[in-house]
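Lab notebook, bench 4. The sequencing result for the construct came back, and we need a structural model before the next group meeting so we can plan mutations. Quick request posted to the team channel:

Model the 3D structure of this chain.
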Amino acid sequence: MAKASPRKPTDDEPVDLRARREAGDPRGESIAPLVHDMLRALGEDTEREGLRATPRRVDQSLKWLTRGYTTRVEDVVAGAVFEERHESMVVVRDLELYSLCEHHLLPFFGKAHVAYLPNGKIIGLSKIPRIVDVFARRLQVQERMTDEIADAIMRVLDPLGVGVVIEAYHL
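Done. Here's the predicted structure in token form:
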């Protein structure tokens, strides 16, 4: 009997990799054996000194690069939302972002610019780059990431409006 996959988390819910493995979902398992096989398929000697630990290192690096799947927006905001009658637009520019394109798993990087018009609440400015990072650290396309960042800020602050611009370059 096949085990049911856990429900798909919402954008701001973390992915519980251990629970997925226990439910029979392969996500969260080590990809080191797959990397080993890929290196062999490329014609590499996987016992060569420089490649022996590569599968483990790639597994660890991809988990770090995609840690946004296991991070919740509420956790990075961590209570830094404040009641404030601020009426001017809040703009945070030139936030560095690094992500992986979901089409080829190649890096893309650039800047995000985030603005919102408060509606009685503001957020600590250091939290905005962390929100950007939650969504950048997933397999992404720039268009969806822009929407996800804006939607997260809307959920957290309920502002009068949000604008997000991403300027990024693929390798």
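The chain has six helices and six strands.
Will bring this to the meeting.
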